[in-house]
Amino acid sequence: MISNERPSPYGNRSHGSHAPKQPVNEDTLATEKVQIERKSFVFTLKENPRGRFLRITEDVGGRRDTIIIPAPGLQDFLRVLEAMVQASGDAPSAEGSGAGA
Questions:
Q1: Cα(52)–Cα(1) distance, rounded to whole angstroms?
Q2: What is the mean pLDDT of residues 4-23?
Q3: How large is the C-alpha radius of gyration of the chain?
Q4: Backbone angles phi, psi at 20, to 5 degrees
Q5: How many whole angstroms separate alpha carbon 72 and alpha carbon 53?
Q6: pTM for the complete prediction?
Q7: Is the dihedral of CA 83, 89, 93, 98 positive or negative?
Q8: For residues 59 and 66, what is the distance between their CA atoms, to the nearest angstrom?
Q9: Euclidean distance between the first and final Cα of the chain, in Å?
Q10: Burial (CB count <10 Å: 0-12, 13-18, 19+), residue 83
């Protein structure tokens, strides 16, 4: 018997054998787009049978990444984002640090 022919102790873990997920009906409640340098961000507030959520999609040259934040976590997300904005204003910039002088 060849080593890769032994049955796995974890069972058959083929990833292609699962039925495809059914699309979930989502309603768009609000959308905003922000362009920052070469990046484009789309903020979309949506709702589906499981609840409301914010989808943030980053598009850089056709490559897209998305994060989803459930509505109950938006206040925490805002609190952390505000703290990061505050910290970014407090930190010395690379230009103002005298690194090149």
A1: 53
A2: 66
A3: 22
A4: -65, 150
A5: 8
A6: 0.66
A7: negative
A8: 9
A9: 69
A10: exposed
